[in-house]
Write a sequence for this structure.
């Protein structure tokens, strides 16, 4: 088919029905991500004496689940809007690091701190791009931007913590999980207003 005979692609910015469909799908995936993050943060907060290996394994599983739902959200709309590719990259990044953590849970703590810092910075970059894009539909939305800022803060803390003896990574990861879970919950509920 020639370019003259092709149907024009539907765009989220020009098609309200497509935007509503995207929001319906994205808010449910964001809700699942929020629940996983809140469960992770809550488990670490209320059960801080968990063995480090269990914490690492649980965090790796949370990254895989979170990344899978990010990728599913993006894959549904990547062909319609190029900015959703950043959400796909963020999801793939999380799945990659979650898988690495699951298969190398007994690695040294310093390797884990650096791996998690790289993950946090990478996801923050992708989520920040997504956050600015979603603001074209949700004026004044700050939830996704704050989640990206939390990722940068976690990455910076992990780099500093890898050099300091006696840090409490469980408490920081707990606060990160709960904070990001609440931010994702708020962002998901804001996305729901578009449906």
């Amino acid at each position: 088919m020639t370019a003259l005979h092709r149907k024009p692609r539907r765009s989220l910015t020009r098609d309200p029905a497509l935007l509503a469909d995207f929001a319906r799908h994205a808010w449910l995936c964001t809700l699942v991500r929020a629940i996983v993050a809140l469960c992770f943060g809550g488990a670490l907060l209320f059960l801080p004496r968990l063995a480090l290996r269990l914490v690492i394994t649980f965090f790796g599983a949370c990254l895989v689940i979170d990344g899978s739902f990010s990728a599913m959200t993006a894959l549904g709309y990547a062909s319609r809007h190029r900015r959703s590719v950043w959400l796909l990259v963020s999801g793939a990044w999380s799945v990659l690091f979650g898988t690495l953590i699951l298969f190398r849970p007994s690695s040294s703590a310093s390797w884990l701190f650096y791996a998690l810092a790289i993950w946090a910075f990478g996801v923050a970059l992708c989520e920040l791009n997504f956050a600015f894009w979603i603001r074209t539909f949700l004026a004044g939305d700050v939830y996704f931007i704050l989640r990206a800022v939390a990722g940068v803060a976690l990455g910076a803390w992990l780099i500093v913590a890898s050099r300091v003896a006696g840090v409490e990574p469980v408490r920081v990861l707990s606060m990160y999980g709960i904070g990001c879970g609440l931010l994702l919950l708020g962002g998901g509920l804001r996305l729901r207003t578009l449906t």
Remarks:
- The mean pLDDT is 78.
- Helices lie at 16-46, 52-75, 84-103, 109-134, 143-161, 169-192.
- The chain has one domain: 16-192.
- Residues 3 and 9 are 12 Å apart (CA to CA).
